[in-house]
Structure formats: structure tokens, C-alpha cells
Amino acid sequence: MERHIEEQIIEKELSYTKLIVKIFRIGKDIHMTLQGGEKPHIGCVVLAVPRPSLDGNGTGSSTASVINVTGHKDEILCRWMAEQVAARENAVTVCCGGFHMDHITKEQILEVKKAAEEMIRTLLK
Asked: What Pfam families is this protein classified in (predicted)?
């Protein structure tokens, strides 16, 4: 298997805080952490396993299992990140972590989502 992702830390300044993604290999597998906001934490753990695409065009998809801490919504970011990386890298991928801001606005939530998407797309280029 050709390896694309190597150990790195990606930081993205937002208008009100910072988002950090750390990535490293464990053998052929990939481990990622996501953290940011006023109170970084572990709000979920996502395990994504690559699988053949349902349209029959080879690998290109993944299936995820999620463990959430009650009341946390970090799955939205971590699941998307893990599934994207697992499918693209054809590697079992774990993403865990959390982002928290008190009194966060809808616009700030969208900024976090956009930043996470940009970070993963940059990583997968």
C-alpha cells in the first residue's frame, strides 16, 4: 500500500479561536485528533473502515462506528473526517476529540465545519 499521509499537525485560525488536527500513522492505520475552542475535550471516538463503493467502482467509501460522550455533538466533524481519510487512504482510521465554545453561534459552527473540511481536503491532496 502506498502511503500518502504522514505524521503532521494542521492548525487553522478561525475568527474567534483555533482548530487543530493531529495525524499520525500506527502501522498502516491512521489516528487523528481534533481539538479546538475554549474547552478542547474528547466528545467522541470514530472508527472508520474502508470498503468497496456500493456503486461497484472499487474502494472509495467507508463505514464508521461511533462512540459519543452523552450530550456532545463532535461526531459531526470527527465522523466526516474519519470517513474521508479511511476511504481515500484505504486505511482503518480513528478520529477522536472535541471542539467546544460557550454560546457558539450558527455562523461560528459553520466556520468550524468549513475549516475542518478545508483541512482534510488539503491533507488528502
From this structure: PAC_bac
